[in-house]
Amino acid sequence: MRPNRLRERFDAGQAAVAGWLSFDSQYAAETLGHAGFDAVVVDLQHGPFHVDAAIGLMQALSATPAMPMARSPSLDFATINKLLDGGAWGIICPMIDTAGQARELVSACRYPPMGMRSFGPARGVLYGGPDYFDKANDTIEAWAMIETAEGLRNLESICAVDGLAGVFVGPGDLSLALGLPPTPRWREGPLAEALDRILQAARAAGKRAGIFCTAKEMAGDMRRAGFDLIVPGYDSLYLSSAAREWVAAAREG
Amino acid sequence: MRPNRLRERFDAGQAAVAGWLSFDSQYAAETLGHAGFDAVVVDLQHGPFHVDAAIGLMQALSATPAMPMARSPSLDFATINKLLDGGAWGIICPMIDTAGQARELVSACRYPPMGMRSFGPARGVLYGGPDYFDKANDTIEAWAMIETAEGLRNLESICAVDGLAGVFVGPGDLSLALGLPPTPRWREGPLAEALDRILQAARAAGKRAGIFCTAKEMAGDMRRAGFDLIVPGYDSLYLSSAAREWVAAAREG
Amino acid sequence: MRPNRLRERFDAGQAAVAGWLSFDSQYAAETLGHAGFDAVVVDLQHGPFHVDAAIGLMQALSATPAMPMARSPSLDFATINKLLDGGAWGIICPMIDTAGQARELVSACRYPPMGMRSFGPARGVLYGGPDYFDKANDTIEAWAMIETAEGLRNLESICAVDGLAGVFVGPGDLSLALGLPPTPRWREGPLAEALDRILQAARAAGKRAGIFCTAKEMAGDMRRAGFDLIVPGYDSLYLSSAAREWVAAAREG
Amino acid sequence: MRPNRLRERFDAGQAAVAGWLSFDSQYAAETLGHAGFDAVVVDLQHGPFHVDAAIGLMQALSATPAMPMARSPSLDFATINKLLDGGAWGIICPMIDTAGQARELVSACRYPPMGMRSFGPARGVLYGGPDYFDKANDTIEAWAMIETAEGLRNLESICAVDGLAGVFVGPGDLSLALGLPPTPRWREGPLAEALDRILQAARAAGKRAGIFCTAKEMAGDMRRAGFDLIVPGYDSLYLSSAAREWVAAAREG
Amino acid sequence: MRPNRLRERFDAGQAAVAGWLSFDSQYAAETLGHAGFDAVVVDLQHGPFHVDAAIGLMQALSATPAMPMARSPSLDFATINKLLDGGAWGIICPMIDTAGQARELVSACRYPPMGMRSFGPARGVLYGGPDYFDKANDTIEAWAMIETAEGLRNLESICAVDGLAGVFVGPGDLSLALGLPPTPRWREGPLAEALDRILQAARAAGKRAGIFCTAKEMAGDMRRAGFDLIVPGYDSLYLSSAAREWVAAAREG
Amino acid sequence: MRPNRLRERFDAGQAAVAGWLSFDSQYAAETLGHAGFDAVVVDLQHGPFHVDAAIGLMQALSATPAMPMARSPSLDFATINKLLDGGAWGIICPMIDTAGQARELVSACRYPPMGMRSFGPARGVLYGGPDYFDKANDTIEAWAMIETAEGLRNLESICAVDGLAGVFVGPGDLSLALGLPPTPRWREGPLAEALDRILQAARAAGKRAGIFCTAKEMAGDMRRAGFDLIVPGYDSLYLSSAAREWVAAAREG
Ligand SMILES: [Mg+2]
Ligand SMILES: [Mg+2]
Ligand SMILES: [Mg+2]
Ligand SMILES: [Mg+2]
Ligand SMILES: [Mg+2]
Ligand SMILES: [Mg+2]
């Protein structure tokens, strides 16, 4: 089975860097997959598509150096199972509020007896190889998003869930949960305190911490702060910001 | 009928700036359509899709400030007709080698008696309004790409074709045609001379000139040189270059 | 942010009229969007598609005068969130049985602190404009369908739910719930009584009332009865009934 | 092999009536297929789709009483071959100008030695049955559209082409070719004369005549005039006209 | 309404044989539909697609002798409803653990008052005919998968659920639940005992029993053992095993 | 640039074996790509799809050991260019009748000055790597199908075309061209003689010879006869024949 590329980074003492895909274009997926990321996360929560397109996007990513991951739209057992069948080497699940939910997430990502994932012939085996069943439980990672008030309250018990790879911060929703505007202010104030607390809790529990970054400076700051998994921006931000720069170059350059 | 936004720019003495779309994602199309372009060109020649996807992309563009245009895959009458039916307000046709081909292009873009475009109930009318048939011949523009050795030889006769809106330079293919590497060197040498000649020929014939630019500096240079329609870069370049910058910010920032 | 067109009608003392789309064709969507409706509802419950197609249909509607709305397939938080991200300016949720469910529906349609909707970069912002986040909670409407025996029993408590825009009657399912055949008899009998009760309850609670109509006469009757939101028929009924008329004209006309 | 349903009508001394599909929705296709037509023509010329969608639409039609046919986007050998492979029991080809083109059309629809159609394993055999190869040349029909000035000039020689099933009038384009507005005036004037001439020429050559009708009255008139194949209206006209009636019923009924 | 073909087999004292589809290709669906099966099950659990593709696959199957069925991705009311609307004549639901879940499944498959299925105009009626509503409750079958430890514990109470057509064994997951490797050993040991127990329980309750078979020998064995519904293999197994045989023939034959 | 896997076989003195894909399912593509073939040919001539689907299928193949190739629907310059942009490492073009057509084919597959292929940013570069432009002309192969009477007549001059990789036999169409039934009889008679002549002509011209085989025995025979590229069967044949065997095992095993 293809190894988990995030862990290769972690084992080398480095942060892993993942891309974020919300365009339902396999060509865009490949473009991101060749841009230097360790993994690319297909976003089924805010991306305008569901599993049909998502699996195609993971198929496209499978031909690139980047490892396919998926953000599930929710803690839905069947959807998570299908994303794994479709070749996701990791699941990031939004809005985990409780340890019980985190346990459900882990269960959905593991075959019995460690979980309740259903076994079926699917492309994960094609992409992963004939030892997929034997190694999947150890290779595939489940990440719980901390981004609600309740999730923050239950942070330590969530971090303690056995089999969870890590916690992943959604700073926009977390800002809203803290009564702040959605554009994250990560350097000071309540969000900064929450990020610090999350990082500490993850470490204390022997788990990884990841975060979605909405500014380049944030990405560097978060890596230096110790986050293991950095998502620096996302496809539609790349496209619109670069397009605006080129338009300006054409009109005024 | 919605007016031709390029002409509004031209009439104001400005260059028009168009985006270039090769991702078959309607969300990417909308993202480009809101990025400040006057038009967005759906590329059926090098983009990994044909008319089915292209019309969907033009539908998505129709809800943005950018006017939908299309680069046809070739000088194929039926395909050009369908792209117009699908709501293209302008066609850029690759590899026009002769004045005869340019006349075919114009004919495919115009209803009789000015051309041979077929009339049928289609979404152009929905997007354009009930006066579409009456105004389409005057509103929709046909641009001939000059990018082959033969096209360059026949430049003046192509520019003289009645009803043609302008000539549009494909600098990569034109470089190859001139025996140069495909990455355009627009500031000096054979390509620079050809660009100058094309611009002169267009002006002499009362036609517009447009160009695809692969560098920001090229976009500004071409506008200053007098090109009327500037395409500064393209979606996959935006995505990959911005992604690389953000990856660097995450790893080293 | 684009205003809610239904409210413009309501504020003018008029009923709003919405189309109903179950064809997964963007061209059909645009055709309906230009047919005179104030809004068009993309039906994910009985339409043969899920969110991928639905968002494309809303993209197509975005270029028309009709405001995009969606009937969600069920009270599923993630699906409702994605439809909103995809540009729905209103959600109609089937089979609301209890006030608790109605509150969940409202919560799914509102950002914190008024609800639990997740914030993410998505096309709603493109379609709606940069003030989308600030105005979305006030602009986007949630409608609860009353169409089960339990929903009818809990009608008043459902109508009392804060933030709910209105109740919307599914007369076919409601007829079944009342022990009647599915083709609605709206003028007398148990269904007529239920419709009257629903209308009264909505008014008493300061909420709007809407209804799906399966006959032209029903549409007029319901408007005169005081329903605020009228859905007169649906696409497949239009297509099949008109087709039959034209077939008859060809064979016997 | 399933028989040609048009011929069953013709053999019974009746006109055949075909539907016209431009919505790329398989559900819309089935809806039309159950509306009483003898056949439904999938329109690849003005419909916003190409062969991928068209074959899906014919698959959907295959489960209905209506026989699948296709209007090809042009006289393109490979496209016509693929539509046949996809299960079209008849091809209507636009803009046939000469007898030579009509012969090419016939050739594309027939296996050697009667034509140059390529043989390959495809769904036509699934839909048609194991005797498909043996009977296809005799069952599948090719219709040439007469709708240009040149086609009208060459009418008699086109009608004389061996193997052609009939000529089919595109009255919108033909009106343009005659210098008239595109909305057909079929009862008098140049178009009426042309229709009469086409009908006579077809009969004289032992060929069938068909026509696309844009009004119910036209459909009845054309049947009475002797046209064999009547296409009464089309899907988007059905949808928009019925929608407008229902909107009026809701607003004013 | 088209009859249930499984029952025709059962009534004739025969086992029914169903195909299993995980390729999201309508052409593959038709190919299976013409291969001699009584039904073909579209697999939404492990197949790489959701309802959009699944309904297209059922449309394709509708033109074949095989009756369309679907395995739902989970016990999700809305999804099951939509698959029925899409023309499934039977639902196989994975991972039924309790009688309560089995009752929910039955309810999702039946209109009131026997269940809570929602009534709406959809393609089931097109495929089934105008008496669809009257006969659907009696024709469409719900099958509960027994494949978890909990489901096995509750086997008898699940079998006792009124309206359930039968139980269907997922031998891979059941093996995992029994602490065995996922490749089923059906002839002896714990799985063989479980299969026997399931068959007995189904019979005792007057229900049918079905099973998914991963080897040809297993298919024959299970039929002889008394299983009513046999699924012999699945599409991707057919394709890969046959391909390997042909590759060997080419390289070494 | 990834090397041409066929040549690796040829250089090792072996025949190459290619799969044949007509299912528009990326999962089916991957399944074939992992079944032991050196390459898989996406069939746009008889497969029910065009370039949009074909490029997705090649993306899926890109993650497998099999090299992506495509059979173009015809000798259409723009389509062949797009398939190459989409990552085809080889083109098989049907129905090449003359040396002039073969030269056009070669030209469409090569950048200037060796051909007229257009250069554009596309996924071929992603899949192939940054040296794609430099090596594409030498790596990508063009194969001309010999399957018509005229092609057979012009065999030697076709084989002499510079830059052509080889000739590829379509035995079904060639049989028809020879006045035989479409199911190939390769062991004796006119087809056997033609195959021998083609093989000799290819060798005499220093070109490769390939053939599509419709029986396992034919595949072995053709390899032994000296054909370089063997296509043993095709996906729909695999699926239907294996399905029938499994049905038999279930019913009678
Ligand atoms: Mg979030
Ligand atoms: Mg070019
Ligand atoms: Mg309802
Ligand atoms: Mg016409
Ligand atoms: Mg299972
Ligand atoms: Mg052939």
Automatic annotation (TrEMBL), chains A, B, C, D, E, F:
SUPFAM superfamilies reported in the protein's UniProt record: Phosphoenolpyruvate/pyruvate domain
Keyword Aminoacyl-tRNA synthetase: no
A GO MF term: aldehyde-lyase activity
Limits of the HpcH/HpaI aldolase/citrate lyase domain: 20-238
A single GO cellular-component term on record: cytoplasm
Domain of life of the source: Bacteria
Keyword entries, A-Z: Lyase, Metal-binding
InterPro entries membership: Aldolase/citrate-lyase_domain, HpcH-HpaI_aldolase, Pyrv/PenolPyrv_kinase-like_dom, Pyrv_kinase-like_dom_sf
Family in the record: Belongs to the HpcH/HpaI aldolase family.
Protein name: 2,4-dihydroxyhept-2-ene-1,7-dioic acid aldolase
Lineage: Bacteria, Pseudomonadati, Pseudomonadota, Betaproteobacteria, Burkholderiales
